[in-house]
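Action item from last week, closing it out:
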Amino acid sequence: ACGSRRVSQAPWRPKALLRTRSQLPGRMSCCCMPCVRTETHAADKAAEILWSKQVGRRTGLPEKLRGVWWMSNNSAPELAVTIDANPYDPATRTTTLTVGAPLNWTFSESCGGRSLLCVILAGTCVCTKMRLVANEDFTYADLPVTGCGCVPFECLFCGRWAMQEVGENTWNRIGYPLCSCGKQDPQYAYYMYTLKKVIDGDGKILPAFQEMMASVSGAPPEGVPAKPKQQILIVPWA
């Protein structure tokens, strides 16, 4: 049963092949794109790896935000994400995620997924970071994205991103268009997709895990796009 199954806490060690610039997914080559190591796993194994890499690396993040999340009805070629091991500042309730860092999220093993991965890796050239800045009760968070230390990417994305809790283990990704003039008024917000927690901070498999697996097994829930079962992970060098 979902509620009783837990992810093994045995330390995970990457077995990835080294990849050079000319061997990046999608066979793209760029002199400024970093060399990376990647692995491809079935979606369930990839999600469990995202959790298991957190063992011994907790950052004080509140339970509401811990664990592995499924980007359920996100049409982009990406499936799961975690922010557990990223730096967290309790004074400002801010988590800082380095875009393109190892083991933060998964990309579909497809032409679109490999292309998105290369775009993400290109973002590392300007030190792209996403910050999750939560309110006091952790029911809402802004998601500012910056490059080169402080340059906002709002114009690149044609707006600002945020997250809103809508139920237990469920958040909506929302956005605000540039024409909102910086206002975080609900009348300006637009819906993007829903995040559902599939593995909690202690490694327990949650009900949404089975929904995620259905979405990569040819029978996705209504309103959820089908995605490949095989998922790409950026992994550490050692």
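Closing note: The two ends are 34 Å apart (CA to CA).
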